[in-house]
Amino acid sequence: WCEARLSSAVPLPPDEDPQRSAARLLLGGRALGTALDSVQRAVPGVECQVDLATLRAELLLRESRFLDAGRSGIESKEELKLDKKLREISAFRRKQFAGEALDKLQVEKVAKRTELFGQVATLKLQKAWAELGLALARHLPRLQ
How far apart are CA 29 and CA 36, in angstroms? Predict the structure, then answer.
């Protein structure tokens, strides 16, 4: 299975002091949990973690979780198109692993799996990163 990661400094408000933010995040575990949960609801299949010691956030998208996750209802047409192709390829791979022969077109589609996952991962991780910034902005004020 493929996976993609995005790791970077926590997206804090521009005028926020990092030490103050770290303390607020540490003290507000419930609000932070709510913010991370909202990211995972907005972008199903994405795992979100924040390291309070380094103020780094990590987003992870695993192909297997992404395919099992539901839809958020706010996917773009491009996301839906890529999602459909990846689900179709997943079905072909299951047939292949079960010993069934694939036709030439199906084999060509399976060969594009990694490339398609990369496109989906880019879209979903960008969306999750934006949602993380919004979620922290919504929930950090509660910690003052």
Answer: 10
